[in-house]
Write a structure and sequence with these properties.
This protein has 294 residues and is α/β, with parallel strands linked by helices. Helix content is 37%, strand content 21%. Helix 4 packs across helix 8 and helix 5 runs parallel beside helix 6. The structure holds ligand DLZ. Ligand DLZ binds next to strand 11.
């Protein structure tokens, strides 16, 4: 199994090596295991993706070390700041501006000069193609046209759960679910959510179930016991039926915290749960299609 690639490149001096590693660490590179012995010293830097490119023909005019980034302008600003403090008066000559390349990217270069005037040239680049370098992954779509969804919502703490419900409906309708394809089931409290969710899932009439409830520690006797059972029951229904169940059960210390998570300050967890349900339905469809092809 291939694990990664290592390119070993000699640098002109210890000074250039130090400058290089300090700049890379300042930009957020993870430090790998370097080495030091009587004859040499090495610095290792790890990046999330590696890419070895060999070529023939017209060589792109680029430095031998290229670092692919997201947010090239922000990286340029960070490198410029670093250069201004490490090469006062010279940064303008050593650092280029980002420019378009003939290979559908933007690039800037930086020269890390050492005391002897030698050093190391690096290039930072970003592809104009937003999908470039993305690891291949199966991801769900958020288009929900034709999807049938059941929402189970608890009446207990209705001031919160009604807001969660509004958030969930907003997400479903905006993603293309038709109103007649949404069934809303109200149950007394969080405790009753799993059994209703399971009945709906077993009916095979729905592609996904969204569960909504709110438990407030300070106001809920046996808070831990109820919460554990609700979470277990919803999870088990999902596992046993294979129908995605989104978990929109709030567990909060105070009513204020619950309000924040129901649309005031920290998003609306009902909205988020509905989006997760849509995404999971789409992912399951894709996984099934992939399985059928094999
Ligand atoms: C009993 C109870 C309590 C104390 N607290 C809550 C809560 O914070 N949130 C909630 O959704 N439900 C609560 N319940 C009601 C139980 O979930 C359940 O509805 C009743 O015990 C009846 O079975």
């Amino acid at each position: 199994m291939i694990k990664g690639m290592t390119l070993v490149r000699e640098v002109a001096s210890a000074d250039a090596l130090d400058k290089f590693s300090r700049l890379m660490l300042a930009l957020g590179f993870e430090q790998g295991k370097g080495w030091q012995d009587e004859t040499s010293r090495g610095v290792a830097l790890l990046s999330p993706l590696g890419n070895l490119e060999l070529m023939t023909g017209r060589a792109p005019a680029v430095p031998p070390i290229l670092i692919e980034v997201l947010g090239l302008d922000a990286v340029h600003a960070a490198v410029e700041k670093w250069m201004l403090s490490n090469y006062p008066g010279e940064a303008g000559d050593l650092l280029s501006k980002p420019e378009l390349t003939h290979w559908n990217s933007r690039l800037f270069t930086v020269r890390l000069k050492d005391d002897a005037g030698e050093g190391l040239e690096l290039g930072f680049w970003q592809s104009e193609n937003p999908l470039h370098g993305k690891p291949a992954a199966i991801e769900g779509d958020l288009s929900a046209a034709g999807m049938r969804v059941a929402i189970v919502t608890a009446r207990w703490n209705a001031v919160i759960t009604d807001r969660l419900l509004q958030g969930a409906l907003d997400a479903l309708y905006r993603s293309g679910v038709a109103k007649p394809d949404v069934e809303i089931v109200r149950v007394p409290g969080a405790w009753e959510v799993p059994s209703a969710a399971r009945t709906l899932a077993e009916s095979k009439k729905f592609d996904a179930i969204v569960t909504l409830a709110c438990l407030i520690r300070g106001e809920t006797a046996h808070y831990e016991a109820i919460y554990n059972e609700v979470a277990r029951g919803i999870g088990q229904s999902q596992q046993d039926t294979g129908i995605p169940h989104a978990f929109g059960v709030l567990t909060c210390e105070t009513l204020e915290q619950a309000l924040d998570r129901a649309g005031i300050k920290a998003g609306n967890k009902g909205f988020e749960a509905a989006i997760a349900a849509i995404e999971m339905v789409s992912i399951q469809q894709k996984l099934r299609e992939q399985g059928d092809k094999k």
